[in-house]
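Reopening this one. Same input as before:
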Amino acid sequence: MDRLEAFEAMLAAVQKSYDDTAAKMDALKAQGWEKSATYRQLMGNKMMYKQMLSLYALHGLTDGEGHA
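Same output, byte for byte:
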């Protein structure tokens, strides 16, 4: 795998993790579990993924879809 392929794979993994985390949070919220430790951990993870995606976007490394 060359460097560009590795970057693309990492970006896709971060985007997928962000989307998966948001979906899990939505499911917990629908069940009224917004104050649970799991929900709060997911929120921290989501914020981390969002920051990573924002850095990619800041440097023009994303197509700007969905996560900014």
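So the earlier flakiness isn't reproducible anymore. For the record, Residues 34-62 form one domain.
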